[in-house]
Every structure is written in structure tokens, then in C-alpha cells.
Write a structure and sequence with these properties.
Layout (H helix, E strand, L loop, with lengths): L5 H9 L17 E4 L9 H11 L9 E4 L24 H10 L3 E7 L16 H11 L3 E5 L13 H16 L4 E5 L18 E3 L11 H12 L10 E3 L12 H13 L4 E3 L8 H4 L2 H7 L8 E5 L3 E7 L5 E7 L5 E6 L5 E5 L5 E4 L2 E6 L4 E8 L8 E5 L11 E3 L5 E9 L6 E5 L1 E3 L5 E4 L4 E5 L4 E9 L7 E9 L2 E9 L6 E4 L7 E4 L5 E2 L14 E3 L2 E3 L2 E5 L2 E6 L4 E10 L8 E8 L2 E10 L5 E6 L5 E7 L9 E11 L1
Helix pairs in contact: 4-5, 6-7, 7-9
Length: 645
Amino acid sequence: MRILTAAAAAALLAMPFVPLAGAADAAAGPPMGWSSRSLGCSVSESSVRKAADALVPLVPLGYRYVIIDDCWLATHRAGGALAPDATRFPGGVAALADYVHGKGMKLGLSLSAGTKACSGGGPGSYRSEAADAEQLKGWGVDYVKYDWCNIPAADFPGQNVQQIAQVLYPRMRQALGAGVVFAMNNEDGSTVPWLWGKGAGATTWRTNVYNRPIPDTYASMVDVWETNQLRAEYAGPGSWADPDLIQAGRGGMTEAEYRTQFTLWAVGAAPLILQADPAAAPPSVVANPKVVAVNQDSLGVHGTFVKTDGWYHVLSKPLANGDRAVALFNESDRAATIATRLGGSRYRVEELWSGAVASSTGALSAQVPAHGALLYRVSESREQAPPLVTFEADPPAFLGDDRPSVLEPGKAGEIVTRVTNTGATARLRDVEVAARVPDGWQVAARTTTRASRLDGGQTLTVKWAVTPPAGATPGNYELTFTQGARSAVAVVTVATAPGRGRTFLSDVAWTSAKNYFGPVEKDTSNGDKAAGDGKPITIEGVTYAKGLGAHAPAEIEYYLAGRCSTVEFQAGIDDEVGAAGSADFEVWADGGRVAHSGVLTGSMPARKVTASVEGARYVRLVATNGGDNATSDHADFAEATVTCN
């Protein structure tokens, strides 16, 4: 094994960096595979072999990198050389690489550019880059994730973080050579790698500066994606923007949301590295060959916005054969129709998740589910495919309306469907729409459900009377409408508005409640974390029989149906936390704040809050944490009432 001498190390420190022309040759497309990150320091030789076995069915699609993310190193070098942890990896790295290679895959390891690894206590590669690179190549390692931890900034007087990174990262890239994938992993973005990573020969460079690492939630995933899109201009073939790992199979999102992440990563030419156990990653999300082909397209272009308004996005990615991939992404909480123009020719349009093929004279339009994304492959073609149809169920009443329509138990509400011949390449004949509702519900068409024909641009609109049963449980329900082989789903909310007169809100079912600590309590204080453990609501010695006990930050929402006028309550910090705690009590009617208390502390008496909610569909009672922290912020909405007409 070759050990770097002191003289060689000094020479390397002084060596100017020369970019490697073929630095990305090891990865023909964005890397695909699996990372051990979820295992943390429980990672072991056996768990990596197990993951490799589970990844085998995905190898034909391009999943070939098995990456050990930290905690593989022994705490100290052995004779100056890196050594694997003998307990976790008793067989050694070379044997593990042979095992992975034997299954048609490649092995990746993490190292740190600093003096220590990020996790596990192992050594970093600072001043040992050449020797460490030769050692990993000798073991048969094909991929290096190079972290940015424990950097000795004092060794670089007068240089900022970016300047230091532009010394340390290229050292390892140069030492590894073009045959090893080099993933620059500066999670907090302090080194701004998108500005210089491509020139430094990085195969990938991290863009996720919002959360590190990426959490398994929809909101966080979208934040990470939006940050990644800001770096699109710097990405290109052989050097790709890396917004972090694919979350499908971890359980924090719905399958539709995982499909959205996969779509956005595919259009963004991002690495497709699974974080979940490969056996748990749903094939319906991670194993669609046509979607993977968009990601792996040899042109290597990062998709960019055609248009966006903050919630509804259209992205386009040119492909090597002259086609383009077009994604329609609905970031909002309600299904919405997203439309764009393809140009002035005739097009073959294939939606890659469903496999549906249609034709269009230039319009592309579809109703996209909440948090959903559709991905199309578009090509100029005279193919005689059916015209593109836009099928909408319960479209929003106005742009930006992100709440489901509300139906009240025992009362008929109106739901609209629309079928439009968007493609305009042929006439649609004998168009008929049918409805399917949950058991016990009633549905009847108020207008005709049939059209003998629809020419290009024409629409069949059907109005439906939909009635939930009188005893329907509050919550969300799906209504399915069909037109031939097509279907459209409307998600509606069943909720009951308060009756006439003055009603205590603790006697009304809320539509949603969020609370920092434990559940919101009715007619008691917040208490501890368990449900039902509160005490009588008491503020500065005054006890209230009715009200809501929360812990700020908290948010409690009610459906008012536009029939109510006033919300009132006594705001204060409950005596169960003594003089501690602080909160600001707010009332929001639909999208605007209509009243607030100002910051109240545990040593202050209750303050009455009166808010006009005239015409509002929803009202939210909000308790913020008073601008400090959430400690002891037991926020009481005492005697909270709503007055309705």
C-alpha cells in the first residue's frame, strides 16, 4: 500500500489544479443507486450487501452505485493508511467492492475534505488526498462522496470558505482521476459549488442549502427543489446539480408526492440515489423506464421553467433525439388545470406515468392533482393518435384557490366537471360523463351528461348535485368521474358550519388543528403531551368553563360557509405554567388577519379579542410563540365563540 510522504504532501499542497477534461467519463448520466444515509452509524458490511442484493432488479434501469455514507472508517489510520471499522466491516472494503461488482454494480464511499469524517469519528483526507485516492482505487471503489466537515480554516489565513474549497476539492478530484465519480457534497452551500464545480471536474455538486440533509416531507422536498432550480444555469452534461436523495419508500410522503419528487429530479437531470431500503422503494415510482430515460438522456440538460406563478409550474427539458420532456407540477393543496403551448406544429404527446398517448396541434393542458406532477414526452409527429383531452373535476373557482370544495352533511352541493377537446386534431364523438361517489352519498346530474361530438376547443360542462349523508363524518372524500377510459378525481371536504346564533367553538368540529405540544384541548388547558390531560382553563386566577387550550405555535381552523359575523374570546397564558410563557393571539378570516391581541405573558390578565369574519369561508385561531421560543406557551382561547346568521 502506498503511503504519502511528507515531501510528496508538500508538493501536492503547492500543485496548481489542472481540470480533467474527462472527469465525468465515469458517469454517462446522472448517477443512480442507493445510499446508506438512513442507516447512519448502524451501517455494516451485511446491511450493505443486503441493500446491494435488493438493488439488483433495478440495475437494468441504471441503478448501479451502492454508496456507504459515513461511519465505515476506523477511528484511526493504520500505519498512515485508511482502515475500515473492523466491527462493522470485518471483511474489508476490497471484498465488499468485489461482491458489489459481481452483481453488476459499483461501490461508493464517503470521505471528508477536512481532518475528520462528518460522522463516526474516522479520519479526514486533509493532506492525505493522493494516498487516500490511490488506496480507494486499489480497493476497487468507483464513487467518492467528498464531504465538507472539520475543515482546518486556520491553515488558510486570509481565504474565505469558497477559496479554501477551491483548493481542497480539486486536490481529491485530481488524485482520483477520471475513472471515479466525484460527488462534491457541501451541504450548507457555503462553498457555492455551482459557480465553479463543473470547471473543477465534479460529477455532481450539492445545491440543497435549505435543509441538510433533505427531510422526508413534501414541503421540505419542494423547498429543496426550488433552490435547485436556481442553479440550473450552472449544470450540464457530466456535471450535474445534486438536490439530494430520492425519498420514495421512507414513509413521510404519499406515493403521489414521491412521484412528484422523482419527476422533478428527472427533469432536473439530478442524481437518482435512493435513501430508503431498495426493497421498500415503490417500483411504481422508481422503476418507470420512460421517466428514468428522461433523467438519463444523453444531452444531459437541466430542465428549466417555461412558466411559473409560484404554485403552478411548467418545466421543459430538451432531449437528445429532438423530443422534449414537459412537466406540469401543481404545488398547491387542490387539483388544478395547468396549460402551456408547445408550438405551431402537430405533436405526439405521451404522459409517461400513465402511458397515455395523444396528439395536439400545440396546446398541452391537464388537471394535475394536488402535490402532483405529470411528465410528458413531446415530439413533432403526424401520428394518428386520439386528440389530447383535458378532463377536469371540480376545478377551482379562482386562480390560487387551494382548498377543496366543502359539502355539508345532508345538503346538496354543486360539483362541476369539464371535458375539453384540447388537442384539436380530430373530433370527439359520443362523449358521456358518469359519476361515482362514496357509499351512502347521492349524486344527480343537473345538466346533460352527453355530447354527440366535441370539435377542437369545445367543452362539455356538467353540473352535478352531490349530497353527503346526514351523518357523514367530517373529513376529505374522493368523487370519481369517468369519460370513457379517462377519469378525474375531485377531493371534497365534508364539514358542518356553526348554526344560527352564538356558539362556543369548543362545541364545533374544527376542520384542522395544529399544536406545538400535544393536541388542542376542548374546555381545558393544554396540559401535558397526552390527550385529555388538561386542567380547567385559568388565566390570572379567573377560571373559564369553556374554551380551547393550546400550546403556541398553534392553529385551529373552522368552516363558516360565509354565514358568520363575529368571533370572540378571552386570550391569555394559562396559570398552569405560572408567570412563564408568551403568545400573540390572532384571528385569520380566509387569507387575511382580522384581529390580534398583541403579545401576552403569563403574568398578564386575559385580553378580549373581537374579530369580524363577515363572509369568510374559514376562520383560523392562531397563537404565535410571542417572538422568543415555545417554552411554557400554554395559550388559552377562553370562552371562544362564533356568531352566525
